[in-house]
Amino acid sequence: MVKRQRGSAVYPQFKGIGAFPNKQKCAGYIPEHCLQICKKRKERIKFMRDLEKVCIQPKYNYCTGEERFTFIKLPKCLVEDEGFVELSMDAKLLYALFLDRVSLSIKNGWIDNQGRVFIYYSIKNICVDLNCGTQKACKLLDELEKVGALERKRQGLGRPNKLYLKKMF
After folding, report:
1. Residue 119 or residue 66, greater confidence
2. pLDDT surpassing 80 at residue 84
3. 81 in a structural domain
4. Which part of the chain is the Replication initiator A N-terminal domain (predicted)?
5. Which domain holds residue 59?
6. pLDDT digits over 1-46, tens only?
7. Can you name the residues that pair with 165 across neighbouring β-strands?
8. Poorest-confidence range of 85-89, 140-144, 157-161?
9. What backbone torsions phi and psi does residue 31 show, to the nearest 5 degrees?
10. Where would I find the H helices in the chain?
11. Residue 8 in domain
């Protein structure tokens, strides 16, 4: 395709409505980037039709791939039990994140001399995962420790604390 000056028509020989009377005549004049956009649009339409075939509502945003089956388990007792009323929802969510991390610790073999599974979860990770500041992250850890859901062991030398989750239910 020929490079054009700003403000000039793409195809000066064709002007106005009906300039391309049939597809064969205009097929050679479609720019490459327009063809790519059309191809993506056709792929999207095909994807939406495939969703409709399996009775999925295409209006809603569905996760695709691995993230579709990624979830965090929140123990029901943390929500229903009266003993945890004073525990904030953020602390409950943090406990659920810790429970999720326990399965990873078991796979890694992070078990102490007493046979207890521990996790590493730095304050920086808590801040990123809960979208909060360091003061709030420390407050949430203190809250879980106060209720008896968590035990922290300091390691010192700039290393993250070992966190032991206690059974709350």
Report:
1. 119
2. yes
3. yes
4. 70-144
5. 23-67
6. 555 455 545 555 555 455 555 545 455 555 666 666 667 777 777 7
7. 150
8. 157-161
9. -65, 155
10. 23-26, 32-53, 76-80, 89-108, 123-130, 134-147
11. no
In sequence order, the 6+-apart residues with CB closer than 8 A to the CB of 102 are 117, 119, 165
Q: Are residues 55 and 121 in the same domain?
A: no
The count of structural domains within the chain is 2
153 φψ region: left (φ > 0), alpha (ψ -120 to 50), beta (else): beta
Q: Cβ(168)–Cβ(77) under 8 Å?
A: yes
Query: What pLDDT shows up at residue 71?
Result: 83
Q: Which residue has the tokens 């106060």?
A: 146
Question: Is residue 150 a contact partner of residue 165, using CB atoms and an 8 Å limit?
Answer: yes
Structure tokens at 19: 């300039």
Does 149 lie in the same domain as 88? yes
Retrieve residue 21's tokens: 């009377």
List Cβ neighbours of 43 (8 Å cut-off, separation of 6 or more): none
Q: Is the pTM of this model over 0.70?
A: no
- Contact status, residue 117 vs residue 105, Cβ threshold 8 Å: yes
Whether residue 111 is contained in a domain is answered as: yes
For tokens 């390691």, what's the residue? 155
d(CA 113, CA 63): 41
